[in-house]
Amino acid sequence: MAEQLRLMAVHAHPDDESSKGAATMARYVAEGHRVMVVTCTGGERGDVLNPAMDRPDVVENMIEYRRQEMARAAEILGIEHRWLGFVDSGLPQGDPPPPVPEGSFAALPLEETVPPLVAIMREFKPHVVITYDENGGYPHPDHIRCHEVSVAAFDAAGDPELHPDAGEPWSPLKLYYSHGFSRKRMVAMHEALLARGLESPYTEWLEKWTEERGDNSHRITTQIECADYFEVRDAALMAHATQIDPNSRWFAVPLEVQREVWPYEDYELARSLVDTTLPEDDLFEGIQEKVTT
Fold first, then answer.
1. For strand 34-41 and strand 80-86, is the pairing parallel, antiparallel, or unpaired?
2. Does the pLDDT of residue 135 top 70, yes or no?
3. How far apart are CA 27 and CA 33, in angstroms?
4. Which domains are delineated in the chain?
5. pLDDT tens, 142-163?
6. How far apart are CA 23 and CA 262, in angstroms?
7. Closest Cα to residue 124, out of 2, 7, 22?
8. Cα separation, 71 vs 154, whole angstroms
């Protein structure tokens, strides 16, 4: 029997795991591997984005609602879950934006935020770690800090000289950045919808995306075919009821179109301690040989 491999995805807020790589995680769980999501903050400063949930009792109990939503999403995906325990920084508005709140995740030094993740890595012993790129996927301060913390923990976890109180050293073998919103994918979906005479939710989004974020399509090294798990992904996303409006553009593209046009989730191999050939179609490529020899 093949070795049970382990995948860890590190995210900034509850619901990020369901909008970025959820179908990939569901596929690997179904194949018998262990998957853990680590959520850096509790999402305390998030707004209620679903009009049906915009009620005083929800706003007053946001922390508890988001914890319950995360537990439900984890159950749907079949994953293990840990909270890193830091406080949501919110998304400061203004030009330039004001500083993030004192004591929030993005305001804390790496010396304080990295060791807890190192401890979880050494306990879970992931072969693969997924996080965001240096821009955070989009420039939310918690996403950028999540990238910084994840990369630092990836490097530190196997070093016995670093964080000796965080457990026995363990070296993850591959680090990936999730690229769930590449322009190439959005263009393909947009054109497929128009060709079918359907309304595209991407028209305005593409203009804004290009202006604000450029195009990261050239960075994609790895595509995981996971179309069979798109329903699981969507169910996990809808579990975050305070954040996801079921009538929103998240669900505007029919699943049959998604499966035909882009049956993948996209990643960038950022670091590898094993031999692998690009492009890849498996996050564990090169690892099975490493762990069984």
1. parallel
2. yes
3. 9
4. 6-181+218-291 (3.40.50.10320)
5. 999 999 999 999 999 999 999 9
6. 13
7. 7
8. 25
State how far the Cα of 12 lies from the Cα of 107, in Å rounded to an integer. 14
Report residue 252 as tokens. 């505007």
Contact between 58 and 89 under an 8 Å Cβ cutoff? The reply is no
* Segment 41-44 long-range contacts (CB within 8 Å, at least 24 positions apart): 41/12, 41/13, 41/84, 41/86, 41/87, 41/88, 41/89, 41/104, 41/105, 41/142, 42/13, 42/14, 42/66, 42/67, 42/83, 42/87, 42/88, 43/13, 43/14, 43/15, 43/88, 43/243, 44/87, 44/88
- How many C-beta atoms lie closer than 10 Å to residue 268's C-beta? 17
- Cα–Cα dist 166/268, whole Å: 28
Peptide bond before residue 164 is cis, with ω within 30 degrees of 0: no
Question: What count of Cα atoms within 13 Å lies in the side-chain half-sphere of residue 9?
Answer: 31
- Cβ atoms of 90 and 262 closer than 8 Å: no
Instruction: Give the whole-number percent of the chain exceeding pLDDT 90.
Output: 79
State the average pLDDT over residues 196-203. Answer: 89
Query: How far apart are alpha carbons 93 and 96 in whole angstroms?
Result: 8
Sign of the alpha-carbon torsion through 112, 118, 124, 127: positive
